[in-house]
């Protein structure tokens, strides 16, 4: 089949649009310092949204059960904040060991809530498959019950989460998740974007995190934190369901 120049350009632009239509979080922000790309984050092979909420990709993203190449570990003090900075994946494939700088001009353009989980590694993080216990440490809902706190109209590019002060010291896999609630009334329409960082929590925390869960299996498509049949992406008036959103899976451990 032959294509005209106009048809070829149209197909090319379509491909570029699909490749750039989503994003992930390949950078960490600790003490105001933005990392290099994939420096402390497990690389994923795609930034496309995940719809398999109970499958292996729901843990750290596509093909990130183990690191695709060695990942460094960043130290974060218990009680402090770690950020996950957003970026696009230009060609929708693994940018292997691409340590480029963060582009502050890039903004998150999906509206939705966020969650954060921790899982303590039994040994080195590069060897850890995330098959241990996970506990939830933070949620970011719609504080006013009307607008998600992370949304496109305020041009944000970093999700921030606070590690509970009582978190025991050690090496952890840190899971950051952002959901795009396309239409809460549509089953399996919510888009899930996930990345995991390698962190070492420091301090003297002596808490007992819980309740715990496992990935995959922490939740499924019918959980109210994912499927919001009574709450649309952009409600016309404040809704308690959005204001009090806690996500799927276990309750938040605050230490």
UniProtKB/TrEMBL annotation:
The keyword Signal applies. Belongs to the polysaccharide monooxygenase AA9 family. Residues 22-227 form the Auxiliary Activity family 9 catalytic domain. This is lytic cellulose monooxygenase (C4-dehydrogenating). Keywords: Carbohydrate metabolism, Cellulose degradation, Copper, Disulfide bond, Metal-binding, Monooxygenase, Oxidoreductase, Polysaccharide degradation, Secreted, Signal. Residues 1-21 form the signal peptide. Pfam families: AA9. It is found in: Secreted. It catalyses: [(1->4)-beta-D-glucosyl]n+m + reduced acceptor + O2 = 4-dehydro-beta-D-glucosyl-[(1->4)-beta-D-glucosyl]n-1 + [(1->4)-beta-D-glucosyl]m + acceptor + H2O. It comes from Ophiobolus disseminans. GO terms for molecular function: metal ion binding; monooxygenase activity. Gene3D superfamilies: 2.70.50.70. InterPro entries: AA9, AA9_LPMO. GO terms for biological process: cellulose catabolic process. One of its GO terms (cellular component) is extracellular region. Its cofactor is Cu(2+). Its main location: secreted. The keyword Metal-binding applies.
């Amino acid at each position: 089949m032959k294509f005209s120049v106009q048809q070829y350009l149209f197909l090319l632009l379509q491909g570029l649009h699909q490749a750039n239509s989503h994003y992930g979080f390949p950078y960490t922000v600790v003490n105001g310092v933005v990392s290099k790309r994939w420096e402390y984050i497990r690389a994923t092979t795609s930034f496309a949204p995940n719809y398999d909420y109970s499958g292996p990709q729901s843990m750290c993203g596509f093909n990130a059960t183990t690191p695709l190449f060695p990942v460094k570990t960043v130290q974060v003090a218990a009680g402090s904040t770690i950020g996950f900075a957003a970026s696009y994946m230009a060609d929708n494939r693994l940018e292997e060991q691409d340590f480029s700088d963060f582009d502050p001009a890039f903004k998150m353009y999906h509206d939705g809530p966020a969650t954060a989980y921790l899982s303590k590694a039994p040994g080195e993080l590069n060897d850890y498959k995330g098959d241990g216990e996970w506990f939830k440490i933070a949620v970011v809902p719609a504080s006013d019950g009307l607008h998600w706190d992370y949304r496109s109209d305020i041009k944000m590019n970093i999700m921030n989460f606070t590690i509970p002060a009582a978190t025991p010291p050690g090496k952890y896999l840190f899971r950051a998740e952002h959901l795009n609630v396309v239409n809460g009334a549509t089953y399996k329409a919510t888009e899930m974007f996930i990345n995991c960082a390698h962190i070492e929590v420091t301090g003297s925390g002596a808490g007992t995190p819980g309740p715990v869960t496992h990935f995959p299996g922490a939740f499924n498509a019918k959980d109210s934190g994912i499927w919001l049949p009574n709450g649309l992406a952009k409600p016309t008036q404040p809704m308690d369901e959005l204001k009090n959103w806690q996500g799927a899976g276990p309750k938040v451990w605050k230490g």
